[in-house]
Amino acid sequence: MVYKETMNDSDSEIHSPAVGMIPSPTDVGALANRINFCTRDMHTKADAFVMGKMALAMRHGFIYRQGILAFYYIFHAVEQQIDRLLETPSTKEELQISAILRQFWCEEFRRSGRLLRDLEFFYHHEYPTQNELQQFLNDFELPPKLQRFVDFIRDKTMENPSTILAYCHVLYNALFAGGKVMRSNIYRNIGLFPKPKGISAAESSRNGTNFFTFSDDGVDEENKLRWQYKKNYELATREGLDENQKLEIIDVSIANFQAVMDILGEIGETNKKELMNIFSFKLLTFLSNEWRYNQKLSSEVKQALAIAVFFINFLMIYFTLRTIFW
């Protein structure tokens, strides 16, 4: 069980926020602050892990789009449950959580549609139409850890509807907080984007960063949305939940961080196995992109990479010709 904070009446009077205000960081009664406090060690660990994985993915489009694909299934699973609770609540607790969701959820925060737009861009070469892409998404066999998390989201929310509020805080606020940084990093690594004819680099950047964009009207509008979301989340959850529900939400919030790290690690392991094959075309792409985009590599290392790519190309051509003519 997670750490359970205690406070006396005087603490409550000192730290309780004024109505309509985002709770201060010292407001121990706010559910969001309790989640942040109980997940801070895991949050720090996850931040370092994710940034390390993203630094690599930023140089390799085939890795980056695998991450976008994984997050599509995660957010799609969460938003399916949000929609179910908003549209067809059937139990007393589902009605309770539905009422809470209505107080803070807004369509601008929905990510699955924006992720789909990113996937249309990154997978356009293989699936040029929306129907073909949707068929791919329907038929795609999720890796084991991703499948477990998607199942967990569905099953846990069906069992305990209040846990949907864990994802509403952890996933969406984390994305909002890191979205601007991610967009900035992506704009500096435009080599990972496909290059359709007639599309400028700026257009490619916009087409490939929908996941991190909450408003097409600029940063100021995004900040207003975030402020409104956080404020309404606090006002809805402060009195609308009992203590056991809040503790369950905190537990699931902790599980979120570990699940995301596991899923990104799973993507890394899958690619590592493929890249270990010396005759993999992905290995050639990987080495080429490291040579082009990794600013930490010295000229000597880049020269060695160029020689390695040439050597692998030579071997692949040799064995292909040998298969054909011998």
From TrEMBL:
This is Heme oxygenase. CDD domains: HemeO. Heme b binds at H43. SUPFAM superfamilies: Heme oxygenase-like. One of its GO terms (molecular function) is heme oxygenase (decyclizing) activity. InterPro entries: Haem_Oase, Haem_Oase-like, Haem_Oase-like_multi-hlx. GO terms for biological process: heme catabolic process; heme oxidation; intracellular iron ion homeostasis; response to oxidative stress. The chain crosses the membrane at residues 304-321. Keywords: Heme, Iron, Membrane, Metal-binding, Transmembrane, Transmembrane helix. PANTHER family: HEME OXYGENASE (PTHR10720).
